Amino acid sequence: MLPPQEQFLRKAWQAAVDAHHIFPEMAACEAALESGYGHSQLATQDNNLFGMKQHRHPLYGTVSLPTREFLSNEWVTVNSNWIVYGDWQSCFADRMATLERLAPHVPHYRAALAAVKGEEYVIQVSESWSTDPGWQCSCGAIFQSQVLGEQHAAQAQHKLSTVLGLGRGEKVLAIFNAITGDWSATETHSP
Ligand SMILES: [Zn+2]
How many whole angstroms separate alpha carbon 156 and alpha carbon 158? Predict the structure, then answer.
């Protein structure tokens, strides 16, 4: 992991802690994935680290930009209205509030908020937050590519299924697994 990426993660983690996010480490990794470590237009101009779309009853400002979604088995670009935040802490607080508001209607968000471990939180959130597909076997194994999943399924005669959003969960966890040591000391040190 590059020093600027670690700096982004530490700063995002602190903002998530300040916003009372229930899994601030995972929230920082989600933000890293969805903002390209803070380099997306939404992040740099609007402090929108998650690609948060505007709520039905807006509390924050709005900007319209294209986004890529995995729909009907292919990636397509669609326009969406995005939220403009004053700072990162507001972004993380709104993210948490959005999950809580939608939890009664979205089982994956309900499961995410009830998660005991961060990994469980990320997988659950991702399966309703994102359309990025991942592949899961009936035995419970998950795969980063369809090819690997199909090889496994063929060899073991297990059943492979496509799970929308699971791919996002895997990518967030890959970022989390790349961080070593204490999060509060993730800051870069010169030799
Ligand atoms: Zn299997």
Answer: 5
* 158 Cα: distance to centroid of ligand 1 (angstroms): 5
Query: Which tens digits make up the pLDDT trace of 15-57?
Result: 999 999 999 999 999 999 999 999 988 899 899 998 777 766 6
Token couple for 71: 């729909």
Domains of the chain: 3-125 (1.10.530.10)
Question: How many C-beta atoms lie closer than 10 Å to residue 178's C-beta?
Answer: 13
Closest C-alpha among 47, 78, 45, 50 to residue 172:
50
Which tens digits make up the pLDDT trace of 103-120?
Answer: 999 999 999 999 999 999
- CA 144 to centroid of ligand 1, rounded, Å: 14
Q: Give distance in angstroms: CA of 107 to centre of ligand 1.
A: 25
- Looking only at the bridges linking them, the beta strands covering 74-84 and 133-137 are unpaired
Report the separation in Å between the CA atom of 135 and the middle of ligand 1, taken as the mean of its atom positions.
Answer: 11
Cα of 142 to ligand 1 centre, how many Å?
9
Q: What is the pLDDT of residues 60-87, one digit of tens each?
A: 666 666 666 676 677 766 677 788 899 9
At which residue do the structure tokens 């659950």 appear? 124
Q: What is this structure's pTM? A: 0.82
Distance, in Å, from the CA atom of 132 to the CA atom of 167, rounded to the nearest integer, reads 5
Give me ligand 1 centre to Cα 147, in Å: 13
